[in-house]
Amino acid sequence: MLYVRTEDLDPVTGKFKNWGTAQAPKFAPVEPLILRANAGDCIEVNLANKLDPSAILFQQNFFMAPPLNGVLPNGQPAFQSKMSGSVGLRPQLLSYDAATSTGANVGWNRQGQPDQLAAFNKTVKYTWYAGKISRGAGGTLNYTDAEFGSLNLFPSDLMYQQPNGLFAALIIEPKATTKWNCDGDGATGDCGQSGGGTATPPPTTRAAATVTLPSSTFREFAAMFSDNLYISQSNSSAVNYRTEPFTFRYTGFTTTDFSCALSNQLVGGDPQTPIFNAKVGDTVRFRLMHTFGAGTSQVFSLHGHAWQRNPYSNSSTQLGNNSLSQWLGSRDNHGSTDHADILVSKAGGEGRRTGDYLYSVFVPIQARQGSWGIFRVSDDGATSTNGGTDGGSPANAACPQTAPASSGGTPAQPRDDLDRFTRRPLNINPRP
I want to staple 227 with a disulfide (CB 3.0 to 4.6 A). Which of 104, 281, 295, 381 is the partner? Predict the structure, then answer.
């Protein structure tokens, strides 16, 4: 299940529109919906439901996670349900009228009010304000613009729609933002519209963008982490729907050293998780969001970089430099429904070093399941066309230069979570 922009769909077939040709197709990116607005904006969203009630997905029974997955005396599961066919969209932080724009039918917000959920072939409209609303002594409403940064957009059925991919993100940019250009080949760069009916193709991704202010720019990367997404029976971790389990990079032979799983020397290619590109020295903002879920809280880490824990100013209504803030190199408690903004002053660190920097999560088993990727810093900020090996990157002597021959077995499981921090010795007689 996906939230998608109407302009990305063919109005006749309802499928993704091909902006290219049959020989060279060009489709909108398959990734979580990422919306953007400026602080102080009034945001109107029209949500249409095109989920066919006869789809197989709606016939499937879903079960609760432990400990709510018990068995009744008759042997049937205690909790099982089919996914809701109605859809909604519920934002964090924003101000809105709960009777019309919550994105859920709860309690008295239904009393005398229109349905806040869209049934099949129906459309519902939400109105949100990117700021805070207070009421004065005389009853007058006071509006305070707020640069909220990244926030989650939740579906109305959290238990069964979200694990099937129905979630989205909204980024509230600085009030003075003049434009945001998303990354793409031959695209207009406009993160908002794909082309408005013209022949202009959509961006390659809306998760990576260049945000322009009156006197500066910054690179922006939206990363939505999931730990209960239905991908396969053995894996549920992903970043923007994409996953790169360590076992995929060791397919066909056994090993207990997972430190080389991140090396392209072993597999000859980049991971399938997002690769974010910036020019060395660029100002960068990572927009982190964690979807609803029941997994262990994660710790986001970005190697080689540090940032302020509380990058807030002007009574916390703006993101920016805070001289009183603690500096960190990781973000803890990045669990269900969390959202955060990582402001990196210089891509490549204080030393302005080009190269591939790992971003991942902790505990280690979560990273092994696929929640990791690459922050690629280069001289020009361009996307690598050779798996990250452009420029003759030096070989890592600790890792095999080519993938070992298949042994016909399955990769050995690490003995404990400390294996993430162990490496093979580089000589025969290592020091104790």
Answer: 295
